[in-house]
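## tool: complex_structure
## caller: assistant
## args:
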Amino acid sequence: MSCLRVEEIGITFGGLAAVSDVSFTVEPGEIMGLIGPNGAGKTTTLNLISGLYEADRGRVYLNDQDVTKKTAYERARLGLGRTFQTPHMLTRSTVSDNMKLGTDLADQMGFLKSFLGFKGHNFLDEVDGLMEIADLKVDWKADISSLAYGQLKRLEIVRGLLAHPKTLLIDEPAAGLNAKELEKSVALMRHAAREGVGIVLIEHKMDMIMNVCDHIVVLNFGKMIAHGTPDEVSADEAVIEAYLGRK
Ligand SMILES: Nc1ncnc2c1ncn2[C@@H]1O[C@H](COP(=O)(O)OP(=O)(O)O)[C@@H](O)[C@H]1O
Ligand SMILES: [Mg+2]
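## result:
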């Protein structure tokens, strides 16, 4: 059973086809890259998957269930998680409150169960484990605004994982991170994939994409111009043209 399948999805804004005919499947434990030049339709595709936008055409399936007509909240309840290009944190609250927020939103029962120590682990152990992988040492009671950008970006992935998603959509996790922080974000994603989470990763840093993705979808002007392994995609003429602009 795939965790995410999109079939020929599309949306048009004022006559402009921001996304058209995009189809792909993500299996549990896979990391799929979604790349393309600025304005290619990457974030819009995530918005269509998460239910922030309603698709004009096509279908979205989570764990083989058709969620095309479901709200963003319902999709989150079905195990879809998301991180944003700019971290979405509650300002004027603590790190701890922000972490619990992600958990509560998608999986209140899962949070309670973990908190009470079901499945042989508890919430705090899980947080500690993820914080160690992310190499984050932050004061739990600190105000979220006191954190550096690089910490927030990694914390956003940690929060996404605490909701125990089956599928996690990650939009540009590396933007603004230094090499060491980037390595830690990659470690978090690999950890999640090993646990069976299916990941869709948007990123401009090509070395990161080529290094972590099992397969890659390339968009240009809202359309899929290539889909394959990192090797296949980097050798693809249409991809080289889209990126280097040569004909
Ligand atoms: N809510 C919206 N209203 C109008 N146009 C939009 C909206 N969202 C995205 N677009 C347009 O869709 C295209 C794709 O945008 P986007 O998905 O953000 O690209 P990417 O993330 O690949 O850089 C752009 O031309 C953008 O202006
Ligand atoms: Mg974008």
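## assistant note: Residues 13, 18, 36, 38-44 surround adenosine-5'-diphosphate (ligand 1) (CB under 6 Å). The two ends are 40 Å apart (CA to CA). Handing back to user.
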